[in-house]
Design brief:
Elements: H1 2-19, E1 25-36, E2 43-48, E3 61-64, H2 68-81, E4 84-90, E5 98-103
Antiparallel strand pairs: 1-2, 1-4, 2-3, 4-5
């Protein structure tokens, strides 16, 4: 009876672990150094003075998808005011496409 209970608990834990997705994110914190609005409203490409292994500083990074105009306005504000941003990408993303953008004081 004890063995059966342990098996059920183990199976339940395995089910929860295998069904949950882990979203690992990487934060690139720095300043916007170049902003290219050419492809609006579909995409924004820009450069930062910071990076990571896949998206080094000075390489174009991208924003595609929702809220493009709001993100463009945020990036332009950060560029003009020399504010720091957090550009958040998925872990192991070699396309350098953002998921979130935060502007800091």
């Amino acid at each position: 009876m004890k063995s059966k209970a342990i098996t059920i608990v183990a199976a339940t834990i395995a089910l929860f672990v295998s069904s949950s997705q882990a979203h690992a994110l990487q934060y690139i914190t720095g300043h916007v150094t170049l902003l290219e609005p050419t492809y609006l409203p579909d995409m924004i490409s820009f450069q930062m003075d910071a990076g990571n292994a896949a998206c080094p500083a000075g390489q174009f990074v991208f924003w595609r998808g929702g809220a493009t105009e709001a993100v463009y306005t945020t990036l332009l504000s950060a560029l003009l005011a020399n504010k720091t941003i957090n550009f958040v990408i998925e872990d192991d993303d070699t396309s350098c496409t953002g998921r979130f953008v935060h502007i800091s004081r």
